[in-house]
Write a structure and sequence with these properties.
Number of helices: 7
Number of strands: 11
CATH architecture of the largest domain: 2-Layer Sandwich
Strand content: 25-35%
CATH class of the largest domain: Alpha Beta
Length: about 260
């Protein structure tokens, strides 16, 4: 279903936060990668207004051009070549302040001055990269990297733990192997919680604390919504060590869990 894109007028974090929530909502239930790449490219491009925004898909030993916004681009890039190929080879996001200083930079456009490339992971391997170019030097930083890595997580194939009875969060965590990403849905008891943003902000803060203060290990995977019983649902994916999982199990409050 088509959506009207909303763009926040605050700082970079505010713009990305609203963008991320809309990406999650729009891609939920859509399994076609090309469709999602097309929409995400358009949404990012409209929000941060760079020179070029798009995806390259891994096909054999090279990257093949996918959906994009902006001027014409290179159709194919070899493994390890240019910023895109290097990000694929290293398996990590690359922030390049000046593309002219990047060894082996591929100049698809002479207007490009800085670039950020974020790998898209699925089943333990890179299946694509998100590439964004700017006409200005040093346009991208760690804030862009953090949010763009969160945005491309919508391409990851994650399977939720199925729980149909009322359980504690600890019981759910115990049922999932540590050091693996998983999702769970938390619905507060209507009698003990109001639907106040502070509740959910506190939940996020607590989950980050349990993950050693690393916000990258707490990923929101679905948009907030109300269920048929008017419970407010939020969904997150966590990545916990043995020690962190044990602490979460011992401290958590009771939440209602269900299949998602």
């Amino acid at each position: 279903m088509a959506e009207e894109l909303k763009i926040a007028h605050g700082g970079k974090d505010e713009r990305y936060d609203l963008l991320h929530r809309q990406v999650v909502a729009l891609t939920e239930g859509e399994a076609d990668d090309i469709a999602n790449m097309a929409n995400i490219s358009a949404m990012i491009h409209a929000t941060i207004e760079p020179l070029w925004t798009g995806f390259y898909r891994v096909v054999g030993d090279e990257l093949v051009l996918g959906p994009f916004q902006g001027p014409l681009a290179c159709s194919r890039i070899k493994y390890g070549k240019g910023v895109c190929g290097a990000a694929w080879e290293r398996g990590e996001a690359l922030v390049v302040e000046d593309v002219e200083k990047f060894p082996g930079h591929i100049a698809c456009s002479s207007l490009s001055r800085s670039e950020i490339v974020v790998p898209v992971w699925r089943d333990g391997k890179v299946v694509a990269v998100l590439d964004i170019d700017s006409t200005e030097l040093a346009s991208f930083d760690e804030v862009d990297k953090l949010w763009l890595e969160r945005i491309v997580k919508c391409f990851e194939a994650e399977t939720a733990q199925v729980v149909t009875k009322r359980v504690t969060l600890g019981e759910l965590v115990e049922s999932v192997p540590c050091r693996s990403n998983y999702t769970f849905t938390a619905a507060p008891d209507c009698e003990s919680h109001d639907y106040d943003d502070n509740i959910w902000n506190d939940l996020i803060s607590n989950l980050i604390d349990y993950c050693g203060g690393d916000a990258d290990r707490v990923a929101k995977t679905f948009v907030n919504h109300f269920d048929a019983e008017d419970n407010y649902i939020v969904t997150y994916a966590l990545d916990l060590t043995d020690e962190e999982r044990a602490e979460l199990v011992s401290d958590c409050e009771e939440w209602r869990m269900e299949e998602i």
